[in-house]
Amino acid sequence: MDGCSDDFLVPIKRGFVWRQSIQFVDTDDVPLAMFPAGSTYRAQVRAKPSDTAHLAEMTTANGGVVRVSDT
Hints:
By secondary structure, the protein is mainly beta. Helices cover 0% and strands 17% of the residues. It has strands spanning 24-25, 31-32, 42-45, 56-59.
């Protein structure tokens, strides 16, 4: 998938706990550390990728984005 598209929507149901794990690897599938310790991050939650308004904001400051490890 190249970027975000409304064609690939999977709704998150209210009240269900969910998490997303992101891992970066090089061309030989070797894990890369892309989120250095001490960094801060922000993500916006939208009903659809094409929506201009966001429903919520997740950050490292509010605990919505958590760095787990280098791999």
